[in-house]
Amino acid sequence: MKKHFLILTLFIIFTTVFGCSSSLAAEVTPPAGADAVNLTNIAFDGESYLVENYQEFKNRIESQKQPTVALALSGGGARAIANLGVIKALVENDIPIDLMTGTSMGAIIATLYGSGLSVSQMEEIVTDTPFASLFNFGGGALLNSEKVNIFLEAVAPRKRLENFLIPTAQLSFDLASGKKYLATQGEISEVLQASYSIPGYFPIHSREGHYFMDAGVLESTPAKSAALLGADFVIATHTPEGSSNYDYGSAFQSANRFLEIIQSRYSGQILERYADFIITADVKNYSFMDFNYATRLVEIGYQETISRIPELKRALKKENISLRDPEARKKYNLDDELRDLEYNRLIVKESEISPLIYYGRDFSPFNQDLFRTPLNKFQFGVEFHHNKLRLSFLGADSWSEGYTAALRVKKLTDSIDFYLKYKNDYDSAADDDYEAELKYFGRRFNFSGGYGSRSGKEYYLLGNDFRYLGENFQWQSENDLFLTREEGNLNLLSSQLINYDFTKAWSIGTEVVYNSSDFVESPLIYRGQELAENTDLQASLNFNYNYNLQLPVQLLNFLQLTDIGGYLFVDYYNDQEQNQEGLAVGPAFNSRLYLLGLKPVELELFAAHDFEIEDQRYGLQFSYSF
């Protein structure tokens, strides 16, 4: 059996490595000549611009046979999400948008709308997307953003800039030539990075001898670019940051403040000279990192624009520009793309190596995902990506207690991935654990089947998980059914999480873990005494209160506090083998911090009274996964 298992595994890896490279090449190969860029060097009001296919772009603008209204979307990190609210208000009030320019986050918003997405679908993407899953640490900068580019191309109806519904130009700065650069063609995943490559944060983007960085570092508005491209009327957004109260004695803070001053003055001059109408969103209380406040930022941009609509209509009328009812946009089915993001199925074309750092929870690949057992140890490892392949190694305490290895082959088909897991605990007297499975990803349900061995017991595996995340009711479930090869016994490991929201702040939730096996570890959720790894039943009832801060609290310049909460819990367990059961109750407080506004760091403090041992247990859980 092991021999056949090994042959099957090697076959899958071989066909994926040597088959997917050719198939991927076929997928991304553009039409002949499609990427032949004709660069034009344009001197415009004292500055030089490199513009891709300038004449073709101008011809498309002029073919509209009417005054061209441009929307120039500013940068500013998360603050610039307010740009989406601006677009929403303009569209609702029949304000024409014939041309779009964007820098940094403004370029991302311009790309989504310019490609043909409706405002409502953009809102769903911007407010519901788990931004943390789009970024990895490393890759030539603090954060690797390759997944961002791949995901945005996946959800965009038109994948190439030159085919956009609205002519769109992305502004960046070319370090090689020292000139501003306007991208007007190419695949989104290949060109978008240039517009938000902030040195230190995101990798510098290189292409055909050009090295690009975010022009918004010094020029947060692309209003001048819109004027260069032939706009008759420029609507420019402005999403400025608030004044800082830092001690500027440090090198970092003084350099950052210097750039802020230059950006503010230079952007102000551009807006004053080239913008016919400026919409300034009051986002000064939000930072570059506040992606968790996306819904609020969209609303700020929307309300500010709505309040300025009468004034904008008068300005357009003065220039003899008529209002136009925008053509209704198709609603696209993005379930597959959002599913791929949720389950980390996006294909990164380039090879990369990323560090793995976990603390507070056990992230062994053999464990279920819904609940993770508390683990007050560091787990370190490394992960290698190449096209559809993902290979990782993970160990705790400098690998002194063993290690796990996991291979994943993404998208054997559009809906199926292959997993291979291996565990070595350095015990020569015990068999190593291994498991192989094929997993099918559906719209709401996922199913898997495979074969493996744990603690010396070989088994066949069937698994499923599903999520229902309604407005007030949420139910998440993960279940694994094991059929032992020799005894023919069925064993079940089942985890359930159910939550009901009474209000935005108050909710009640229950957690249940059932395990009928003696060779598969249970995820531990009981907060009283320490339990055996194979405890039969654990259940928890939580009465929760959570307060979302109106404004984030910045800590140490790179952490932000967004919510605080507390709850009362009642925990129960039953261990049939030990003929024991217990009950624990107590209060708990929790909070969530975000590193750079993206990567969550969870804090939880609890006090539990265990009635079986008549003793108290206190816990401070600090967990993160990078």
How many beta-strand elements? 28
Global outline: elongated
CATH top level of one domain? Alpha Beta
Question: What would you report as the Rg, rounded to the nearest angstrom?
Answer: 27 Å
Treating each run of at least 4 consecutive H or I residues as one helix, how many helices? 11
Biggest sheet architecture: 16 strands, antiparallel, barrel
Helix content: 10-25%
> Low-confidence spans: pLDDT under 50, at least 5 residues?
1-33
- The neighbouring-strand order within the major sheet is 13-14-15-16-17-18-19-20-21-22-23-24-25-26-27-28
What is the CATH topology assignment of one domain? Cytosolic phospholipase A2 catalytic domain
Strand residue percentage? 35-45%
The CATH superfamily of one domain turns out to be Cytosolic phospholipase A2 catalytic domain
Report the structural category: alpha+beta
CATH-defined architecture of one domain: 3-Layer(aba) Sandwich
Give the terminus-to-terminus CA distance: 37 Å
Mean pLDDT metric:
87
Organism: Halanaerobium saccharolyticum
Protein name: NTE family protein
GO biological process, one term: lipid catabolic process
InterPro entries: Acyl_Trfase/lysoPLipase, NTE, PNPLA_dom
